[in-house]
Design goal:
The complex is a heterodimer of chains A (about 400) and B (about 300).
Chain A (H helix, E strand, L loop, with lengths): L1 H17 L8 E7 L6 H17 L3 E2 L2 E9 L4 H13 L5 E4 L3 H13 L3 E4 L16 E3 L6 H13 L3 E7 L2 H13 L3 E8 L7 H10 L3 E4 L4 H12 L7 E4 L8 H4 L7 E4 L8 H14 L5 H20 L6 H10 L9 E3 L5 E12 L5 E13 L10
Parallel strand pairs in A: 1-3, 1-4, 4-5, 5-6, 7-8, 7-9, 9-10, 10-11
Antiparallel strand pairs in A: 2-3, 11-13, 12-13, 13-14
Helix pairs in contact in A: 2-11, 3-4, 5-6, 11-12
Chain B lengths: L2 H32 L6 H19 L2 H22 L9 H23 L15 E3 L5 E3 H23 L1 H11 L1 H6 L4 H23 L9 H16 L4 H29 L2 H26 L12
Antiparallel strand pairs in B: 1-2
Helix pairs in contact in B: 1-5, 1-6, 1-8, 1-9, 1-10, 2-3, 2-4, 2-8, 2-9, 3-8, 5-6, 9-10, 9-11, 10-11
Classes of the chains: A alpha/beta (about 400), B mainly alpha (about 300).
């Protein structure tokens, strides 16, 4: 007891010196990501990226000790809901960081924001919460889901593709990507093919592609689907006559399985491991040293999320009780993003640059996406004007 | 729609059918002969693929990896039989489903722990990596032809074994009446073990030859297991011949349906409606086929003799 008292007096003395309310408890951050099944690789990148940032700051964000609670949503909406509710009600976290997938975000959104807890998404950026249903307690540090496909349409225009074959899995995100692509692409879409989710054998589709007369293919095939498609596309000899353009299909999570088959394939994104800025170079180096693999955009976004929280907590001096102050501090986005310029729109979705990327092989035999040129500067999503914030 | 495209679709359908057959063959024997529901059969397909990956990494040779994977898959199958499944033969189907489902979860997670959650791939062997120029722009990999041939060889081997050898005769007899075979002094326990081991090995083989075409990931056997059940029910439980024809039928209908459903529908309805309905209808086709066949032939296409 005596010892405690001593610490307490020391604390009071210190706070008196520093002139801030340093009485706040540790900052509690709950994380809800997918860590089971094949998409676990994405969730793992987010955990790794966030923890790297924490470690570099000695386990503190904004000068406050941080307790991180990581939960696995198992890619099941009901599980995500239970985990998120318990984070808010039992653990009384100050922030929830999640999720990887948009449908998980839909599941956890309401209970978190209704309890006046800040929800920061390090990846999922559905249109649902970008427009009319935007929320003062919700921030996105990644992108709005449609944006990458819209940028792909612009890339197709700039590269002079006239006929493009589009193929996506038959579910919401797949259809959103086709809509996004067609919104900006000025040429002719020869086909719109929808495959089942988790599709195994693309050879029937490849046969259609070869007879379609298109100059390029645009696709969105995340995870294992992307590995199969890219390998089968290359094996069928289509890479020689056609350009391959995609989003979330050839990234750092799938390239170890695609290897040489993907080299030269185009992608759209807000970041690549070799994006030229000092903060990014240091991040990629530290990340590879610690985890032994090249970080993808998921890890980068998680790192940026940690940096954002760091800046906001520092601004409020660790005081989480004044929600308006915390929100204002988050909104400022006063941190060094690995992507370079970064700010929040009125709907709390990012305004950032988007680039054309292509896949390259590094000297040590590993593969990653590489920055080619910037396609759109300070690009905002197209839903923000419907948001009354 | 060109003839080349149709030809390619048929080849793909055949190849998918062969893969299904390799998995369904073991499943139908285990189900037919032992009356045992083995949900973990699909996971043995995944195990085969991971074994191939591991052995290719170790030895650097694809052919060597195939042989080692087959042996390991057989041993794993026998071990599973000895330690787990043997104790479940006399239990009811619910216990078997629960236990084998547990094995699925366990092995899927184990694969993730050992190899990581990311999708892996292996290259086909050097001498099979070429391709045949089908049209000006499209090549068809030789490896895919080889998988069709491999499937046919296995089918022929199984047919000869089951029709003309003593062990085949016992398997057929066991499918009809296991008690009677046992009463005639045959070690039925050992027969079951052989059937089970071979079934596991065939599923593993399917995984091995599928690995270079498809990607290797935890849970890759879960979906194919459902289709394999469709195959054995359509073909008639316990019947290798039925499994063969049903596998080809399901493979062809699924492949052709996926490509043609949208096209056919768009001749009747407007394109955007066809685009909505086509993919959904295509993925239902094999189940509709199964239901239709069961209406006219409740025991399947070629039921095993004497199954009641």
């Amino acid at each position: 007891m005596k010892k405690h008292l001593k610490q307490l007096t020391a604390g009071v003395a210190l706070s008196a010196v520093m002139g801030t309310a340093a009485f706040a408890d540790d900052i509690k951050i709950g994380m809800v990501v997918t860590l089971s099944g094949p998409p676990a690789a994405l969730g793992q990148q987010i955990v790794d990226g966030f923890q790297l940032a924490l470690e570099q700051k000695d386990g503190m964000l904004g000068g406050q000790k941080v307790e991180l609670i990581v939960e696995d949503d198992e890619l099941k909406p009901d599980v995500a809901l239970v985990k998120a509710t318990s984070l808010v009600e039992r653990d009384k976290v100050d922030f929830v960081v999640g999720t990887v997938f948009s449908n998980m975000l839909q599941a956890i959104f309401k209970p978190i924001v209704q309890s006046d807890t800040f929800l920061v998404s390090p990846n999922a950026g559905p249109s649902t919460f970008a427009g009319r249903n935007c929320n003062p307690y919700f921030f996105v540090t990644s992108y709005q889901n449609n944006q990458n496909a819209e940028i792909s349409g612009m890339i197709a225009n700039e590269e002079g593709f006239e006929n493009v074959f589009t193929m996506v899995p038959n579910y919401q995100a797949g259809r959103d990507n086709i809509v996004g692509f067609k919104q900006t692409f000025k040429g002719n879409v020869t086909d719109e093919v929808f495959t089942p989710l988790g599709h195994q054998d693309f050879s029937a589709e490849l046969a259609r592609i070869s007879t379609s007369g298109a100059d390029a293919i645009f696709t969105f095939m995340p995870g294992g689907m992307g590995v199969r498609l890219v390998n089968q596309f290359a094996n069928a000899g289509l890479s020689e006559n056609m350009k391959f353009m995609s989003v979330f299909t050839t990234d750092e999570t799938t390239l170890p399985g695609q290897k040489d088959a993907a080299v030269g394939f185009l992608a759209a994104g807000s970041w690549a491991p070799d994006l030229p800025n000092d903060a990014n170079a240091a991040f990629v180096k530290a990340f590879e040293e610690k985890y032994g693999y090249i970080p993808g955009s998921y890890a980068m976004q998680a790192y940026d999320t940690a940096s954002l929280l760091d800046s906001a907590i520092a601004k409020t001096g660790g005081d989480m009780s004044d929600k308006d102050a915390v929100r204002a501090a988050l909104k400022e986005a006063d941190f060094t993003s690995l992507r370079g310029d970064f700010s929040f729109n009125n709907n709390h979705y990012p305004v950032q640059d988007f680039h054309m990327l292509n896949v390259v092989k590094r000297d040590d035999g590993k593969f990653h996406t590489s920055f080619v040129r910037t396609i759109a500067k300070d690009y905002a999503d197209s839903f923000s004007q419907n948001c009354k914030m | 729609m060109s003839t080349t495209l149709f030809l390619i679709l048929c080849l793909n359908g055949l190849q998918y059918g062969m893969l299904l057959f390799l998995i369904a063959a073991g499943l139908t024997l285990v189900f037919g002969v032992m009356g045992f529901i083995n949900l973990a059969h699909g996971v043995q397909y995944m195990v085969g693929a991971y074994l191939a990956f591991a052995y290719v990494q170790l030895t650097g040779s694809f052919m060597l990896a195939v042989i080692l994977s087959l042996v390991t898959a057989l041993i794993l199958g026998l071990l599973l039989e000895y330690f787990i499944f043997r104790h479940l033969y006399n239990r009811d189907h619910l216990d078997q489903v629960l236990a084998t489902f547990g094995i699925i979860i366990f092995l899927n997670e184990l694969a993730k722990v050992i190899f990581g959650p990311a999708t892996l791939s292996i290259a086909p062997p050097e001498f099979l990596s070429g391709s045949i120029q089908l049209t000006e722009t499209l090549r068809y990999p030789i490896y895919r032809f080889v998988t069709i041939i491999a499937g046919l060889v296995v089918a022929l081997g199984l047919y000869l074994t089951i029709s003309f050898t003593r062990i085949g005769m016992l398997i057929r007899a066991g499918a009809t009446s296991a008690e009677m075979v046992s009463a005639l002094g045959v070690n039925i326990q050992r027969l079951f073990m052989i059937v089970f081991g071979v079934g596991a090995m065939l599923a593993g083989f399917a995984g091995v030859i599928a690995a270079p075409i498809f990607a290797i990931e935890p849970g890759m056997g879960d979906n194919i297991l459902i289709v394999a059940f469709v195959v054995i029910i359509t073909g008639g439980i316990g019947s290798i011949g039925g499994a063969f024809f049903a596998a080809l039928l399901v493979g062809l209908i699924d492949t052709l349906g996926r490509s043609l459903a949208t096209e056919i529908l768009s001749t009747i309805f407007n394109p955007s409606f066809a685009n909505q309905i086509g993919p959904a209808l295509a993925s239902m086709l094999i189940y509709i086929l199964m239901a239709a066949i069961l209406v006219f032939r409740p025991k399947g296409l070629l039921p095993a003799k004497g199954v009641s």
